[in-house]
Design goal:
Length: 227
């Protein structure tokens, strides 16, 4: 089994045909679904809420990776967990109540993730790393789909990998990357230490979702073979 995971982002899906879109993604072999929650405050866009997560959870047998780009996440994290989030990632910049949110995530037996925006230094994560399962490195500015990958993210991912290794947390904490992932950038971020990849426009613009996913997996398999 591959150590890599690919999570299609529903932000780029055809929302009027979301049920069919999800079925196609499951049949194509997606590892999980990435659901971007935006509140119009922490980021300017508005997207999904707990009812959508609850509906997908009730009807589809695929893990739900929920990324909340919202202000004051401590006030509403539980709503997304109760709706069915298997992993909940919140932004380190959005609150000072990090430990309280992590405890709430654990109480619901979900995986805890912290998202970090491009301008935020990796060093801010240090007090929290031993308490979480995943760091979601934003390789674009949060809030909009379809953005180009920020090359400076590569150094950030490598720095995070070194920090995890220094504290012997590389097996506990997964490095995930969100933004501008294509068949070219996925190789770059994986080489720097990323193991989970949120894929939006590259996948949903492809005429054949399975073929696009297979292309990404082929790139990752080649990297595994080189190690």
């Amino acid at each position: 089994m591959s150590r890599y995971r690919i999570a299609p982002s529903l932000l780029s899906a055809d929302l009027l045909n979301l049920n069919d879109e999800i079925d196609q993604l499951i049949q194509a072999g997606s590892d999980e679904l990435h659901i971007d929650v935006m509140d119009g405050h922490f980021v300017p866009n508005l997207t999904f809420g707990p009812p959508l997560i609850k509906g997908i959870k009730a009807r589809k047998s695929i893990p739900l990776d929920v990324h909340i780009m919202i202000a004051n996440p401590q006030e509403s994290a539980s709503a997304y967990l109760k709706a069915g989030a298997d992993c909940l990632s919140f932004h380190i910049e959005a609150t000072h109540e990090h430990q309280a949110i992590i405890r709430e995530i654990r109480r619901h037996r979900a995986r805890a993730g912290i998202a970090i925006s491009p301008a935020t230094p990796i060093s801010r994560l240090l007090p929290l790393l031993q308490h979480i399962d995943k760091v979601l490195v934003m390789s674009v500015e949060p809030g909009f789909g379809g953005q180009a990958f920020l090359p400076a993210s590569l150094q950030k991912i490598a720095e995070l990998r070194e920090l995890l290794a220094k504290h012997k947390l590389e097996k506990q904490v997964t490095i995930a990357v969100d933004g501008g992932i294509t068949n070219e950038t996925i190789a770059q971020v994986a080489a720097c230490g990323a193991r989970s990849f949120v894929v939006g426009s590259y996948l949903f613009a492809a005429p054949d979702r399975r073929k696009a996913l297979d292309t990404l997996r082929s790139v990752l398999a080649q990297l595994e073979g080189e190690r």
